[in-house]
Design brief:
About 15% of the residues have low confidence. The termini are far apart. By secondary structure, the chain is mainly alpha-helical. It contains six helices and two strands; from the N terminus they run αααααββα. The longest helix is centred in the N-terminal third of the chain and has 39 residues. A two-stranded antiparallel sheet has the order 1-2.
């Protein structure tokens, strides 16, 4: 059986503190990557297109808040272009991406052919949820934006 001195515990405590420091440092390095992956995943799953204050209580819907959060990022134009072209994003998320491109780089939006011309999308206006043709809304965004 070994007897430990106070010096042994101090030495061991210092190495544990270093270990904890590297764990915490690692969290700060990897959290932004996970956050952006989560934003992308959440954005690609949007299933209702809604701009402005809507719903029974008249507030911004969570999907619009997510869109605005992405719009405020530095690389949002690239993000929105990838979302429009992605086979994994919903038609509704493609419409938000079109709004983002119209805000950021309209010339990019002019080059994009609507990927889902016959598809119908869920649209929330005021407190009414209904379905409209994707192409019709996409063309409206190309001409007028989303304001």
């Amino acid at each position: 059986m070994r007897l430990y001195s106070a010096f042994d515990f101090a030495e061991q405590g210092a190495s544990i503190m270093n270990y904890n420091f590297y764990i915490i440092l690692g969290l700060f390095i990897f959290i932004p990557a996970r956050a952006s992956e989560s934003l992308e995943t959440d954005f690609y799953k949007i299933n209702v297109f809604s701009i402005g204050f809507n719903g029974f209580v008249a507030r911004k819907m969570p999907q619009q808040v997510l869109y605005e959060k992405i719009l405020s990022q530095e690389d949002s134009a690239v993000f929105f272009e990838n979302a429009i072209r992605s086979p994994y994003s919903t038609p509704e998320s493609k419409l938000y991406a079109a709004c983002g491109l119209w805000e950021m780089k309209r010339y990019m939006l002019e080059k994009i052919i609507p990927p889902l011309t016959a598809e119908r999308v869920s649209v929330l206006k005021a407190d009414r949820l209904f379905r409209e043709r994707f192409e019709q809304i996409f063309q409206s965004i190309k001409q007028h934006g989303c304001n």
